[in-house]
Amino acid sequence: MSSCRKCRNNQKGCCSDELCVRRERSQLRRDSVPDGVDRIGALPDDLILYILARIGCARAAAHASLLARRWRGLWALLPELAFHHVTADEIDAAFATFARRSLSLLQIRVPCRCHDVTIDSPRVSAWMRAAARVAPAKFIISDDVVVRKDGSAVELPCFDRTTAITLEVLGARFVLAPAAAGDLRLLESLSLLNCHVEGLGDLLRRCPRLRKLRITRWKHELKVHSPSLEELDVEVYLHDVKTRLVDIEAPVLKKLRFASGPRPCKWSGANEFTLSYSAPMMENLHWRCFCSSKTDRFGVRWRLFHLTLKTANPLGQMHLHHRHEDGNEDQDFGQFKIIPVTNFQVLELRIKTEGHVYGAMVLHLLGLGKFIRRLRLELHQERYECSVSCPCDHPSDWRSQTISLTGLKEVEIHGFNAKGHEITLLKVIFRSATMLVRTDVYFSNMVPSSNNRCKEIYDIAEAYPSMECNVYHDSAE
């Protein structure tokens, strides 16, 4: 009995040695029965359907007719139909086989990408209409389906009894069926992956019970207005995606995850991204952005390339590194201007220093958050020093600064090399954070245990008796 590749990879029951019985072996068993009775074929329909359902693959279930002729066609009565690694022609034939009825699951996966083939939009439209007729509770068309770019659209019909839909059809442009066709009145979960829906706002208005929405690789502006939406997951990663606007209005939204990738460097709208966001019931926020903001204001060019915000610890995270390149500079890490919150309490900085002085930049970022209670620095430092003429410490007036850090309670630093400018940064933080309770400093493994900088840190901390200071000789501790 043959089976789909996905089932074989996942070791589904349909592909186990016990069920993969060839026609010859089955015939031998029937011939060995003394009275000539086909005992497999004589099993009750309910039991046969139970066995076929356990296979988990419609294609393998159809091949089970090799065991007994009476099993032929029973696969079409299964409550769940998953077509893994089948051809487009086999999908057409399958839809022509089973009559209109309700399914709990209908899943379609056609291996287009691995075979370098595409499917016409009208054909996918026919599959969508056929899927709507059988009214599955959950409908998935995903994984490897690729639509030919011929300019035609795929019609999205009314799934009036479906509660969950996943559309992962690379290159597809979906258009809604006329409003007269009805609403998706029971739909609670919708995933739009690697595709586009014209009139997304109209679609959302026709989904009165929608609670979960996931969108990836969305082009141009994205507007999500929904009175019922509780979870929203948006991913924009690839260089050819040019999302200029994200507009979210969801009064009962509780969970938002937004991930965005770097904009194309030659794209005129790269600095025109706008976020409009209204979700007063928000409980869980995860904002992740691969940035392109950079600044020259700290002597050398620092680039902010990765920014993450969460509602759980740590609430604010930024990853930075120094990079030499030509181009216009954003003097204040412009990516900060689009983050959806400003009252974050935990700031985590992962800094690739490349031997440069970073104190002024850290103090600048600390000054952007007025409610920061905890600072964590993770330093990735190289063994080499920057050149004597390196401008990384210009301007150097940061060393005498005192900034307002009255909310800061905890400081944790990993990868500390105890260089002079790093000790100076500690001094600035200590005198600026008047309510500081605890500081933990973990030396880099490049710092020898005999280094007297440990004593120097303790001596500085003695001036602040209300603060607990701990120094460790290995960042791994």
Automatic annotation (TrEMBL):
InterPro entries: F-box-like_dom_sf, FBL15-like. PANTHER family: OS10G0396666 PROTEIN (PTHR34709), OS12G0545400 PROTEIN (PTHR34709:SF62). This is FBD domain-containing protein.
